[in-house]
């Protein structure tokens, strides 16, 4: 009977040392290795699991990083969640056994769910997206992101379940799509009047059209949302003034307390419909 | 309408006009084309009687009918997905493990006691299946969810397969199964191996086993 680990093959598990660890590449699907040669990386707190060498981790609030922050960190509300790694060595990044991958941007832009971004090179600039709960990276460089299951790249036109969306690149038009076709017709009328039959759970999607790439994670289990703070209550700023931590289970309609046609609310829920 | 596995946690289905696909509500990840998702009041086939049967058997699961023309991606809860292609045989699976299945498949419920009497009912309790399980019969594809990866173990005559009841996902074919117990005095004093109950499947077919003892 063989009790040894399977992944390592006949020679047993692969043992890494500072020289055999890959440089800026995946060690396995769940771990990413970043090599620092006197350079800096920005990473979310708590995503570093091990490191070799001399690496210092400082909060971004540190005065030494004033210049760095001026060029590559434009999200003061996230300042508490990010640290700067600086020094010589290799560090391993992972996030709760989610799949981890690195992506290269070349004079590009990519918007990603705030909780999915692990780390990025300071040659990229991090900004808050005008879509609440998302962050936008602009420029040239590498970043590391986690997803529940491997990321699937799709081309628009496409409609995506809000929970399955990891991010998008170059798409100019992310918008909401509401689908209530099944509420029409005789049966739909009954459903709409009585609430019997409930909703399909698929009446709200994010719609993408135009040129670009949409990143999907292959499950609807969301990573824990990081509190992304609130944007200043200014006229014309989406999501201003309201906390928007909860992107899970409920759609924006649920958050707003709007009742869709055909929903009987608590009564319907009690009947399990 | 076969499902195409995009990766271990995601399948893609082509929807063509005139054919219906049933899927668990909320399991759509993305779609292209004009596809409608209609909640199925009766939770599948068989009309109102089918619905009552499933409610009584506690095998009802919120389903939706997927129609139209286009491409739909399915996945749910980060669970691994296994596609089972049926060619006339019957698949026995718990309703809440169903991610999506062809509308051409016949959906039914089966009383566990009808396979092995009282021991069948005990088996249902041990595997977490309860007293009833869902059957799908005909020609078509089923996408089944499981916690952890899934392996398919073929069952051939004279080569019965023993499965941990908690790791059991589904089986198809002409398979008899019974619960075998290996209870000894060690189990009584709390020094058992933890493998006192095993599911023994014999006959002709295949059983799907998940790499986890966690229920869905």
From TrEMBL, chain A:
Xref: InterPro entries: AIM24 (IPR002838), AIM24_sf (IPR036983), Trp_RNA-bd_attenuator-like_dom (IPR016031)
Pfam families reported in the protein's UniProt record: AIM24 (PF01987)
Gene3D superfamilies recorded: Mitochondrial biogenesis AIM24
Highest taxon, organism lineage: Bacteria
SUPFAM superfamilies in UniProt: TRAP-like
PANTHER family in the record: ALTERED INHERITANCE OF MITOCHONDRIA PROTEIN 24, MITOCHONDRIAL (PTHR38074:SF1)
Official protein name in the record: AIM24 family protein
């Amino acid at each position: 009977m063989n009790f040894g680990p399977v992944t390592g093959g006949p020679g047993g598990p692969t043992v890494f040392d500072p020289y055999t660890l890959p440089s800026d590449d995946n060690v396995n699907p769940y771990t990413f290795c970043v090599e620092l040669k006197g350079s800096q990386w920005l990473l979310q707190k708590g995503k570093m699991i091990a490191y070799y060498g001399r690496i210092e981790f400082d909060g971004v609030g540190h005065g030494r990083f004033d210049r760095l922050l001026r060029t590559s960190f434009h999200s003061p509300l996230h300042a508490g969640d990010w640290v700067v790694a600086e020094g010589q060595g290799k560090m391993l990044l992972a996030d709760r056994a989610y799949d981890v991958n690195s992506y290269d941007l070349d004079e590009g832009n990519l918007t990603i769910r705030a909780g999915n971004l692990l780390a990025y090179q300071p040659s990229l600039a991090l900004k808050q997206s005008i879509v609440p709960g998302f962050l936008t990276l602009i420029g040239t460089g590498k970043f590391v992101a986690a997803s529940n299951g491997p990321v699937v790249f799709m081309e628009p036109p496409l409609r995506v379940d809000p929970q399955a969306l990891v991010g998008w690149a170059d798409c100019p038009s992310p918008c909401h799509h509401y689908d209530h076709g099944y509420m029409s017709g005789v049966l739909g009328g009954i459903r709409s009047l009585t609430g019997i039959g409930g909703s399909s759970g698929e009446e709200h999607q994010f719609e993408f059209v135009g040129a670009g790439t949409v990143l999907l994670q292959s499950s609807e289990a969301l990573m824990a949302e990081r509190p992304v703070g609130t944007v200043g209550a200014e006229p014309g700023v989406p999501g201003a003034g309201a906390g928007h931590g909860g992107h899970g289970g409920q759609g924006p309609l649920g958050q707003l307390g709007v009742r869709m046609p055909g929903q009987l609310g608590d009564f319907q829920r009690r009947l399990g419909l | 309408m076969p499902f195409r596995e995009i990766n271990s946690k995601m399948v893609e289905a082509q929807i063509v006009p005139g054919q219906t696909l049933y899927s668990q509500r909320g399991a759509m990840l993305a779609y292209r084309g004009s596809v409608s998702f209609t909640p199925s009041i009766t939770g599948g086939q068989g009309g109102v009687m089918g619905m009552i049967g499933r409610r009584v058997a506690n095998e009802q699961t919120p389903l939706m009918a997927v129609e139209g023309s286009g491409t739909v991606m399915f996945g749910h809860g980060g669970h691994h997905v296994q596609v089972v292609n049926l060619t006339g045989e019957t698949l026995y699976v718990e309703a809440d493990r169903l991610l999506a299945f062809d509308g051409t498949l016949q959906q039914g419920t089966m009383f566990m006691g009808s396979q092995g009497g009282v021991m069948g009912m005990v088996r249902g309790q041990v595997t977490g299946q309860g007293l009833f399980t869902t059957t799908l019969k005909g020609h078509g594809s089923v996408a089944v969810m499981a916690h952890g990866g899934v392996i398919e173990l073929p069952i051939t005559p004279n080569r019965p397969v023993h499965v941990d009841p908690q790791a059991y996902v589904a089986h198809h074919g002409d398979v008899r199964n019974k619960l075998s117990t290996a209870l000894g005095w060690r189990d009584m004093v709390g020094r058992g191996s933890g493998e006192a109950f095993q599911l023994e499947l014999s006959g002709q077919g295949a059983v799907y086993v998940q790499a986890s003892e966690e229920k869905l």
